[in-house]
Amino acid sequence: MIEVSHYSKRYGAHEAVQDLSFTVQPGAVFGLLGSNGAGKTTTIRALVGLTRPTSGTVRVAGFDVWKEPVKAKAAFGYIPDRPYLYGKLTARELLRFVGQLYKVEGADAEIDRWLTLFRLEDFGNELIETFSHGMRQKVAIISAMLPDPGVLIIDEPMVGLDPHAARQVRELFRAHADRGRTVLLTTHSLPLAEAVCDRLVVLDRGRVLGEGTMDDLRTRTGTAAGGVHGD
Ligand code: ATP
């Protein structure tokens, strides 16, 4: 579960995020929706312990990320918007390393299953440095999913993915939440938010335009989702 309470972030005089509050319950896929500069990545970075809030609190799995970082960080899997993967390893080597680190049972079989799901089975033994952006994104998603995290936090998961992979990722977020896990993603894509999120917050230049289901937002604000891209 994720709890963000009166979270604000200021860079000098610039308010990147102003007074943001939301809760994500287990079993839900929750979206932060907004255009460039809305404050999505800033919020995610506070939640994963990378950028300290100016004010407010952020909690993951019941732990204050900035007061109990070790416990909070053990509870989530995180995929940044530009994941860094060590290029001198093959995809399989990297994923085996993750499997060992998190003591994943039956990791080899799981890795095969994931590689096949993302049509990477012929590339498992290739160096990651030879991969396209979309292929790296898939490996990053697999490495976050392999330990089966209770909370999955993903910044712009669909950027660079082909339509097949995008559909797989949508389905796996849904399935992950349906098993009682929590999924938080950011997106600038209204159709993605509509297709996968149970609830969302719409941000615009750091301000909250609305929070709720897509239907709530349409009804309450009319234009809340305006300004975000329809691709
Ligand atoms: P994008 O999709 O473009 O990444 P975003 O919604 O994720 O957009 P953020 O990256 O969170 O937006 O940025 C929110 C605002 O905070 C922007 O105006 C950005 O320029 C500013 N900002 C972000 N990081 C910093 C930083 N380290 N120093 C100063 N300003 C920053």
β-strand amount: 25-35%
Structure ligands: adenosine-5'-triphosphate
Tell the overall outline.
globular
Global structural class: alpha/beta
| Average pLDDT | 90
Largest sheet: 6 strands, mixed
| Sequence of strands across the biggest β-sheet | 6-7-8-3-9-10
Say how many strands there are: 10
- Cα-atom radius of gyration: 17 Å
Measured between the Cα atoms of the first and last residue, the distance is: 29 Å
* Model regions low in confidence, pLDDT < 50 over at least 5 residues: none
| Residues in helices, as a percent range | 25-40%
Number of helices: 8
Secondary-structure element series: EEEHEEHEHHHEHEHEEH
Structure overview:
The two termini are 29 Å apart. The strands form two sheets. Strands 6-7-8-3-9-10 form a six-stranded mixed sheet, with helices on both faces. The chain has helices at 40-47, 69-73, 91-101, 107-117, 133-145, 163-178, 190-196, 214-221, and strands spanning 2-11, 14-24, 29-33, 55-60, 63-64, 76-79, 151-155, 182-187, 199-204, 207-212. With 231 residues, the protein is α/β, with parallel strands linked by helices. The radius of gyration is 17 Å and the shape is globular. Helices cover 34% and strands 26% of the residues. It has eight helices and ten strands. Pfam families: ABC_tran (PF00005). InterPro entries: AAA+_ATPase (IPR003593), ABC_transporter-like_ATP-bd (IPR003439), ABC_transporter-like_CS (IPR017871), ABC_Transporter_VariousFunc (IPR051782), P-loop_NTPase (IPR027417). Keywords: ATP-binding, Nucleotide-binding, Transport. GO terms for molecular function: ATP binding; ATP hydrolysis activity.
